[in-house]
């Protein structure tokens, strides 16, 4: 099955790396990178979507609306392998 990505929107975002962890598996090294994006409030963002940032795809792992205020969304993500 082939997955096709369809852009939802291009938005400004604050980006921050939360952690970086290298896992050695056999002869290769994989990097697990957890990140945070903060964007303006939107109602159409779900954890089934991905974010493309500087050519890297991040799975959205959590959508956080700070105390229910409709100003910003904090999106937590994990880099795809």
List keywords for this structure.
81 residues; mainly beta; five-stranded antiparallel beta sheet; 0% helix
Structure description:
This protein is mostly beta strands and about 80 residues long. The chain has strands spanning about 15-25, 30-40, 50-55, 55-65, 70-80. Strands 1-2-5-4-3 form a five-stranded antiparallel sheet, with no helix packed on it.
In short:
The chain has strands at residues 14-25, 28-40, 50-53, 56-64, 72-79. It has 81 residues and is mainly β. The relative contact order is 0.26.
Strand residue content: over 45%
**Which descriptor suits the 3D outline?**
globular
The biggest beta sheet, please?
5 strands, antiparallel
Q: Which segments are poorly predicted (pLDDT under 50) over 5 or more consecutive residues?
A: none
The helix content, as a percent range, equals under 10%
Number of domains: 1
Number of strands: 5
Order of H and E elements = EEEEE
Distance between the termini: 18 Å
The helix-and-strand class reads mainly beta
* Gyration radius, rounded: 14 Å
Averaged pLDDT, please? 86
Number of helices in the DSSP assignment: 0
Name the strands of the widest sheet in spatial order: 1-2-5-4-3
Q: What's the helix and strand layout?
A:
Elements: E1 14-25, E2 28-40, E3 50-53, E4 56-64, E5 72-79
Antiparallel strand pairs: 1-2, 2-5, 3-4, 4-5
